[in-house]
Amino acid sequence: MWRCDPLLTVNRYKCCYCGACVGVCPTMSLELVETWLEVSPECKECGICTKICPVGALEVKA
Amino acid sequence: MKCDVVVVGAGPAGSMAARTAAAAGLNVVMLEKRQEIGDPVRCAEGVGKRVLCEMVKPDSQWIAAEVKGARIYAPDGTRVVMSEDRAGSEVGYVLERKIFDRALAMDAARVGAKVLVKTRALELLRKNGVPCGVSAMHMGEPLQIEAPLIIGADGVESKVGRWAGIDTALKPKDIHCCAQFLVQDSTIDDEYCEFFLGNNLAPGGYVWTFPKGDKLANVGIGVQGSKSGSGVPVRLLKEFMKSHFPNGRVVEIVAGGDPSSGVIESATADGVMLVGDAAHQTDPITGGGILNAMKAGIIAGEVAVKAVSNGNLSKAGLKEYEDRWRAEMGKHIARSFEYKEFFVKLTDNDLNQLIGSLKNEDISKMDLRGMLRMLFKLNPKLLWELRHLVV
Lengths: 62, 391
Known about the structure:
The complex is a heterodimer.
Chain A: E1 8-10, H1 20-24, E2 30-33, E3 36-39, H2 48-52, E4 58-60
Antiparallel strand pairs in A: 1-4, 2-3
Chain B: E1 5-8, H1 12-23, E2 28-31, E3 46-48, H2 49-55, E4 63-66, E5 69-73, E6 79-83, E7 92-95, H3 97-110, E8 114-116, E9 119-127, E10 130-138, E11 141-146, E12 149-152, H4 160-163, E13 175-184, E14 192-196, E15 206-213, E16 216-224, H5 232-244, E17 249-259, E18 268-269, E19 272-274, H6 290-310, H7 319-343, H8 348-357, H9 368-378, H10 387-390
Parallel strand pairs in B: 1-2, 1-12, 2-8, 5-14, 12-19
Antiparallel strand pairs in B: 3-7, 4-7, 5-6, 9-10, 10-11, 13-16, 13-17, 14-15, 15-16, 18-19
Helix pairs in contact in B: 1-3, 1-6, 6-7
């Protein structure tokens, strides 16, 4: 079910689990569970969340 | 588990909805996915005193500070001062949201609402396609809560609306990306909220300092999402700290996304009402959302009581909620959105001209609308696009 090597990576040392990324995700692929941001396989790696992350914790690997 | 109303999210909107509905005798269950209500905050915690006190009895336990007024700084440093009762509904008290949110949830519990923490909604339950509750995860175990009415108070991350077919995904231009430090510094003014404008300082937004008493303040930044970038808010906030509080001690870091989309097309669907940030009921100019969230929660709670008792929980049956929240705050949010769309286009020179034009005017007795009218009078050419809002 979960992709082994997702292209959207979460730097969990930077993430402040604010949920802004969840609010802009067009495919509902992100879910915040306490301090843990889950990325589902529906993620299209559109990168919108990476641009709005206040702390720079998200990255789409090329 | 069965109940009359399930409320998803225990922030101010959810708790006010749960409290209102439970106090009128409904069987209410409120879910909160976190294990602790109210923490970490995603908020500058400023709130208008008068409107807040119309809804809840003030309690010194959750009032961190009371402020006298607000100062606004142009990019060139020019400063104007507005007094507290005139600075709009965003200053007055600075709250301790960690305690405030819990107090509101406990008020709901006291009148009979059941509160389930560490309980996350996973999807809507449906019967013949109509929502009839939520499927949840309670402390890692599945839990079904059957209810004919679901109130989505699930904040900027809202899924309830999206599950019900309401597109609440925010475009980057309609979210403000925020970071905030709780700062201890001997230079902090304990009596004034301050707002700093400038395209280098905070593109499409502003930097704020909201005092929390005893030389502490929330020092935060909101940047329009379309003008932001990976990690930009926290980087700009660090730069602001260097120039304004070089010796400040940062004792807490929080972040957040603030909806600034203006009025949502629909905050209801069959069996579903959205309240607070989930319904984008924040003011697009100030970013303030606590009071609107609480008002909407109360309205939703009252409509829930009627709708459950008459058995009409369709979108049409919930129209009273839609009508009442739009009448209460919709027009104001729509107007603020137009201001936001205009102000985010201004250059630093424009901002300097606008704020500079107020330097010799007495604005201490004006509210935000009065100040904008004055700005229009003094700068008609620059503000021509806004004439329909001012007259």
